[in-house]
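Q: Give me the 3D complex with BIS(adenosine)-5'-pentaphosphate.
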Amino acid sequence: MNLVFLGPPGSGKGTQAKVIAEQIGVLHLSTGDVLRDSVKKGTELGKKAQKYMEAGELVPDDLIVGMIEEKLASGELDNGYILDGFPRTVPQAEALRDMLKRNDSAIDKAILIDVSDEEVIKRLSGRFFCPTCNAGYNYPAKMPKQEGICDNDGTKLQRRPDDEEDVVRNRLEVYQRQTAPIIDFYQKASLLHKVAGEGSLQEITARLLKVIKEN
Ligand code: AP5
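A: Here is the predicted complex, encoded as structure tokens.
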């Protein structure tokens, strides 16, 4: 099963993709996670991507498409996947379609997780993570036992630099301008499914699994 999860920043793509990939036995590939890891390690890709990410802008298409091409060539995606955060522009969606076609493959479903801007701002202003083990927390939805400290290893929790409110507002604008047009792209290809993204984590997982499993 080859899936694309679409939706604005903070819509729950990463949270849900992680749980569902495990349940249906496919790989979860988040371009945001790969880029953050590259920034942390100071790789060439990370150095090129950092300034765009911190401003809430998209990293140039050629860098991202090159990264996905490498993943496809490595065979990591051979047993199915959920793409989270890619594609994010129409040229990226076209490049993905063409790359897959060359390998006699295709996307099965593109699922849009629909969430309001107010909910996005609320979720992202409450998001914290552990820089040591990467565990995610959210105030007040998923609090650590001791405020500001990771339950697993006692590390001080941090916020993503792009979760500051002014950057989140820019990310929402970028989403509307550059990413929302791919909804139409997948609609025209008869691959689009829409899921309401507000409610408990379990409710949204159940909605997504229903869409994934139906013919
Ligand atoms: P990326 O990491 O992909 O950021 P994003 O899409 O903005 O995604 P987020 O991680 O903020 O949101 P999400 O939808 O995954 O939500 P999550 O599950 O985390 O990209 C970061 C940057 O990298 C981009 O701005 C860009 O610069 C660059 N980039 C990445 N891919 C690119 C590409 N293809 N092209 C160009 N540039 C690219 O949830 C958010 C929070 O809400 C969490 O705290 C979670 O616990 C909480 N939450 C989730 N669900 C619920 C719920 N139901 N109720 C309450 N809280 C919830």
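A quick observation: The chain has two domains: 2-115+168-213, 126-163.
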